Structures are given as structure tokens and as C-alpha cells.
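Dear colleagues,

For the upcoming journal club I promised to circulate an example of a predicted protein-ligand complex. I picked one with BES because it came up in last month's discussion. The inputs are reproduced below in full, followed by the predicted structure.
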Amino acid sequence: MEIKVLQEVNDLPCEVLVINQFEGEKTSQDIANTYAIDKDHFEGKFGQTYLLHTFGKIYADKILIIGFGKKEEFNANKMREAVAKAVKKLQQIQAKNACFDFDINCDYGKSAAIGAMIANYAFDKYKTQKATRLDEITFAKFSEAEVKEGIILGKALEFARNLSNEPAEFATPSKLAEIASNLEGIETKVFDKEAVERMGMGAYLAVAKGSARPPKFIHMKYTGKNPKKKIAIIGKGICFDSGGLDIKPASSMLTMRDDMSGAACVLGVMQALKDLEPEVEVHGIIAACENMPSGTSYKPGDILRAKNGKTIEVDNTDAEGRLTLADALCYACELGVDEVIDIATLTGACVVALGTIASGVMGNDDEMISRVIKTANDSGEPAWELPMFEDYKSSLKSDIADMKNTGSRQGGASIAGVFLKEFVDNTKWVHIDIAGTAFLEKPQKEFIAGATGAGVRTLLNYIKNS
Ligand code: BES
Ligand code: MN
Ligand code: ZN
């Protein structure tokens, strides 16, 4: 879809003119006020739509009114949702182009562009019958810079969603490494199995052992102009999570191609940095592998040694993500960065706690945690802090190693958090659990079922604001 910006759309022929109506107020078009409001009593409640044929009375064939709700409650997040609703409606009537001319005082061009791109997304690469999409939209009044930034984020989202929607047969560790190596404006190093062994990443390697596909440890680097800060972002990159020898039931395994959504997010973010040009040094790190059952799999009872020397007794091979992240966290801390953020489809317990509505956030620095949560909420990706009480650690006690990889099922998201903390030195660190938010089994708000690109907007905005 092409997105354009114009100062005035007046008299520009288009199929559908999209305008807004705040609850209880008039719109900018007389014809809409007469028919929709006066005659049909359209109220303009948030997200309501009204379609009107103009029969040549104005330059557009149709007018679509989108309800903006109460004026005092309107904000950037509502703009994104409203534009997404309008785009879904436009798809329903099979419109190919539309002009959005909103009567508002704020420049929400970034949110508007993101909303349009989220709603116009479909993963139809493997379908013979392609989805109905808009080809072109024009925004009036918004600043070009705002819309442009929205498009950068929108593209990063599409990139991440595509990758995480792909079957595991496509998005293999080697494929992720290849994609990372081909990113423009990014320096990429890929470590193969032997190199990973030399680095002493015994936890990550153990997870990779059962798979016929070799692990790839990926380190990408973006260097902005006059970097003020160094940030490492780590994405969980389990290309398929069968559970390993502690194999998952069929129904839980069905969507486990999404277990590299953290990695897809990091790749989407890295891909966008050359366009966003933040003044930051960003390291993108992915310890990619599959978690498979086989004759060479790691086993319950095995003892692993992570990069920082700590030993781990394998209690459950399905708690593989934290093992790969453990070594990736050690690696990131050794880079001497100011901050580390990991993003991972880590625990079913986080899904139980927060559902598909919000991601779980933990960390070792209150100020950084609040900044990540605020950025997430402002970005339209709700996040909620989960506790990291010391006492959770007792559940990871092992008789034969420094710790086990799992403890009690109760409080599972926090237990995973305190496990990860063992592999972070005194670098500021935040962990984002996207197990519930990365992949939807049914449509939710502006998203269709499937991958959501969770974390892309949060991380890009966080980096931009750093
Ligand atoms: N990838 C899963 C977590 C997950 C669950 C992501 C549901 C998305 C949706 C993770 O590797 C896992 O299997 N976690 C286990 C941990 C348990 C064995 C302690 C879980 O949550 O059941
Ligand atoms: Mn697992
Ligand atoms: Zn997993």
C-alpha cells in the first residue's frame, strides 16, 4: 500500500473520503451532517462507521465517517485504532484508494500511518486467493515527517509479522542468520556451532542438540551518529518449540513456530534503524535454534554450564527459552552496553496472568522498567510489571547444580524472570515476556489472527527516545 501526504485533498478525485466525527459534534462535510447526523442520527461513538454515497455531490464517490468518540478522550492510540477500523471497513467494501481528511488539532500522523498498515496487513503469501487490500491512501493535514516515521514503524511491524507467521520450515536458524546478514546499514556476525562452543555457551548449545538444523548465534550492530547510549536487544529465537524430550501436547505445539517472535521483533527493529537514524549504538542478539526431541537431545537431569560459569540442572526441556537467553544475556553484558532488553515468548504462565492483552515486564532497575512500560503503553502495546521477589529463587534450588531451569508452575513468569537475572551482571536490564501478545489465535482489535509483531513499536520508540 502506498501512503501519501497532502495538505489539502479537496477536489482530488478518490473513491472514498474518510472523515471523522466526535461524539455529539458535526463533521467537516455538510452532506454527511445532513444525511448521517440529522436524518440517521449517527452518533460518532468511538469506532462506529457510517458509509454514504455522494452521487457526484462532492469529489469523492463515497464518504466514510469514522466515530472518534468523546473529544476529550481522544489520543494517539485512539487515532491508530480509528484508522485501522476505517481501513477494515474500506476493505469490506473493496475500496482500492481512500483520502483521510480529519478535522483535528493534533498531528497524529505517525499513529494514523501505523494503524493503516496494521489493518491492511495479511499473510497471504501461500494463498492462491489473495486478501482484499487497499492500494493507496492519502492523508491530508498530517505532517509528512510524522507519517514517514509511522511508515518506518509500520514496515518494521510487517517485517516481524511476516517472519513470525512463516512456518518453521522456512524460518530456520540459518534463515534468520541469512536475513540478519543481508540487513542494510547493519554489521552482522554469525557464530556457528563450533564458535558457540568456543564461547562456552553450554546452556544454549544443549537446547540446540536435538535438532538436525544447526544453531546460529547472531550479533547485529547498528552505529548511529554521535551515539549517546549503547543498548543491546536480545530476541528469543526458538524457531520451533516442540518441548524437546518433555514434549508438548499436540494442541500446545500447534503455534510453536511463533517461538522466534522475539527474534523476529529484534530483526524488524534492526531493519528499521537505518531509516529511523537514532543517535544510539544498538546491538541485536539472537541465539537461534530449534527445541526438538531426538537421540541427541538434551535430557532432564543433564547439568549445563552457561557462559558465566553458572551450572544448571535440566528440570524440564520445555523451559528452553531461558537457557538460550542465559547465554545471550552473558554475551550482551560482556559487550559493555549501558542497557540490555530481552524480548521473549517465554512462559505460558505470563499468558495466564495477562492474557493476550498485555506483555509482562521485569528487570533489575526500577527507572528503566518504568521507562519501558511507559514507552510500551504510549506505543499501543500495553505492558504490565510482574514482580521479581528474591523468594521466587527458592523454587529453582538444585541439589546438584547452582540452579534448576524450572521451579513451581505457580508464579512461572516471575520464576523465569529470576532465572534470567542470574545471567545479568550489574548492567541495567529489562525482560519483556510476549508469550501472550506475540501471536493471536483469533482477531483482536486492529490485528488479524497470527503474529502481531509485539515489541517492535516499543523497542523502536524506546531506542528513538534514548
Ligand atoms: N515457548 C514456551 C512458552 C509459550 C507458551 C509461548 C504459550 C507462547 C504460548 C516456553 O518455551 C515453554 O514451553 N514454557 C513452559 C515452561 C515450563 C516448562 C516451566 C511453559 O510455560 O509451560
Ligand atoms: Mn518450551
Ligand atoms: Zn519456548
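Two points we might discuss: The domain at 154-464 is CATH 3.40.630.10 (Aminopeptidase). The chain has two domains: 2-135, 154-464.

See you all on Thursday,
B. R.
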